[in-house]
Amino acid sequence: MSTDRTDCLFCRIVAGDVPATVVATTDRAVAFRDIDPRAPLHVLVVPREHHPDVVALAAADPALLADVVALGRQVAEAEAGGQFRLVFNTGPEAGQSVEHVHGHVLGGTRLGWSPG
Ligand code: 5GP
Ligand code: ZN
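Above: the input entities. Below: the structure tokens describing the complete assembly.
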């Protein structure tokens, strides 16, 4: 997959062309705060490389998916005692609005369960 897609919001955030509050990085992944947080901790973890969703990423580069998960755990350990929910909305019916794979790292409170 190519990187730095100018038509992709999260590629533009990774490139620094769109501002975001970055909380942690690795050489292959970036964590930044969601602009519309749904929990005290709500950070998005994304690979620097463009992949459309978590299924495509898992197929193309499982080690990179593992890096993204590890970065989510690192942020949750730093900010929420290490307990967190990691959500990858996949497809518009499931709520995916940005077609660059991103995990929602949610925590910092007792989370309920209400899909939909
Ligand atoms: P999705 O709905 O695709 O699972 O998640 C996309 C997330 O990206 C949403 O939670 C939304 O609030 C967040 N988001 C959309 N635009 C921006 C932005 O420009 N900056 C940041 N930091 N988050 C964004
Ligand atoms: Zn992208």
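Note for the figure: The CA atoms of residues 6 and 81 lie 36 Å apart.
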